[in-house]
Amino acid sequence: MAMSTEDLKAAILDKALKSPKAQLYIKDFYACDPDSSPRAIKNAANEMVREGKLTFWSSGSTTMYAAKGRAKNEEGDQGVN
Amino acid sequence: MPKHATPLLDQLESGPWPSFVSDMKRQAEKKPEVWDILGQLELSYHDRITHWKHGGIVGVFGYGGGIVGRYSDVPKQFPGVEHFHTIRVNQPSSKYYSTENLRAICNLWEKWGSGMTNMHGSTGDIILLGTKTENLEPFFWDLTHELGQDLGGSGSNLRSPACCLGQSRCEWACYDTQEACHQLTVKYQDELHRPAFPYKFKFKFSGCPNDCVAAIARSDFAVIGTWKDDIRIDQAAVKEYIAGNYPSNGGAHSGRDWGKFDIKKEVIDLCPTQCMWMEGGELKIDNSECTRCMHCINVMPRALRPGKEMGATVCMGAKAPILEGAQFATLIIPFVKVTKENEFQDLVDLIEKAWDWWMEVGKNRERIGEAMQRVGLPAFLEIMDVKPMPQHVREPRSNPYVFWKEEEVEGGWERDIKEFRRRHAM
Ligand code: SF4
Ligand code: SF4
Question: Is any ligand 1 atom within 6 A of the Cβ of residue B310?
Answer without folding.
Answer: no
